[in-house]
C-alpha cells in the first residue's frame, strides 16, 4: 500500500502545507521528474540542445519501452507528442472519413474532441452521433450495437470524463465497435496514471493521454498508443522528416510504426521528465496507485456526501478519483475561490467542456476535486472541514 506521507515527502510541491486536490488539472510532479527537467535544461544551456539530447539518447529510446509496459503494448506502438489533444488530433485526422460516414461519441465526450469531430464532419459531409447512456450514466453497449453499421468509421470513447467520477465500460463498447469494423479511439487523459489502462486488455485501436495530470509529468507532454495492425490503413499526411523520409525527389515514405505521429522537434527536457514520470509510476505499481486513489477519493466522496447542502455529482458504476460536487446556494467558482484561499486547491468544470453530460443532468458548473495518492486521510478530513465552513 502506498504511504501518502512518504509520497508527499517525495513531492516538492507538498512542502507548502496546502492540500492539493487538482491532479485532474495539472498535478504536482515527484522530485525526480522536476530535477530531470531542470537538469536537462541546464545541460542544454551548457553544451547545446543537440549534444545534450545525444547524451540522453538511451533514456529517450527506453521511454518507448516504459510507456509500452504501462499501456500493455509494443514499444513500436508508442509515440510521444506535446499534449493529449495533439495525440488525439493526429490519430483522428489519420482515420479516413468520407461523405456519409459517421463518428460515434458518448455522452461523456470532451469538448476538445467533439469540436474537431464536428468541424471535420462538416467539411467532408460526415456525421457525428451520440450513443445514449444507461440509467447509471455509463455508455449503453446495447444502444451502441444498434447504431453500428458499415458507415461508422470511428467510435470515440472517454475513459474518465473531465467533469466527474465516471469510469466508462471501455472493453465491452470497444468489442462491439471493432466487431462492426470501426476504429476505437480511447481518450485516457484522465485515467492513465490513476487506473490501469492496457491496450491488451481493453482491445482498442488508439489510446491518447497527457503527462501533466495523473501521470505527474511536465506540462506540454502527451503520448499515444496506436495498434500496429491498423497503421497501414491510415492517412499519413501530417508527417515530417522524423515520421517519414524524402526518399526520391518525387517520393515521400512514411514510417510504419507509431512514431509516424511524432514531429522531429520536441522539448527533450519535458520528454525526459515524462519518461521519469512513467518510471515513477511503474516503480510504485499501477495497481497500488489505483488502490490508493480509490481509497483517498472514496473518503472524500463519502465525506462530501455526508455534509448537508453539498451534492456529489457522480454517475456510472465504477468511479475514478475525480470527485465533482456543488454547494447549495454558493456558485461553483465562489466555492473554488474560497477553498483555494484556505489552502485547498480545486478547480471548476464547466458545461462547455462536457456539454452533453452536463446538459442532460442540468448542470452548469461543478467544483472538481481530484486527490492523488500523495494526499493523506488527514488532509481529506481537513479539506472536508473547509467545505463545511464555506457552506456557511
Ligand atoms: C484534459 C483533457 C484532455 C486534453 O488534454 P491536454 O493535455 O490539455 O491536451 C482530453 N480529454 C480529457 C477527458 C481531458 O480531461
Automatic annotation (TrEMBL):
Domain of life: Bacteria
CC cofactor: pyridoxal 5'-phosphate
Catalyzed reaction equations: S-(hercyn-2-yl)-L-cysteine S-oxide + AH2 + H(+) = ergothioneine + pyruvate + A + NH4(+)
Record domain Aminotransferase class V: where: 19-382
Gene3D superfamilies: Aspartate Aminotransferase, domain 1, Type I PLP-dependent aspartate aminotransferase-like (Major domain)
Coiled-coil annotated residue ranges, if any: none
The entry's keywords: Aminotransferase, Lyase, Pyridoxal phosphate, Transferase
EC number(s) reported in the record: 4.4.-.-
Pathway(s) served: Amino-acid biosynthesis; ergothioneine biosynthesis
Cited InterPro entries: Aminotrans_V_dom, Aminotrans_V_PyrdxlP_BS, EgtE, PyrdxlP-dep_Trfase, PyrdxlP-dep_Trfase_major, PyrdxlP-dep_Trfase_small
First-tier enzyme category under EC: lyase
Positions where N6-(pyridoxal phosphate)lysine occurs in the chain: 213
GO molecular function, one term: hercynylcysteine sulfoxide lyase activity (ergothioneine-forming)
Assigned protein family: Belongs to the class-V pyridoxal-phosphate-dependent aminotransferase family. EgtE subfamily.
Annotated function: Probably catalyzes the conversion of hercynylcysteine sulfoxide to ergothioneine.
Name of this chain's protein: Probable hercynylcysteine sulfoxide lyase
Organism this protein belongs to: Marinitenerispora sediminis
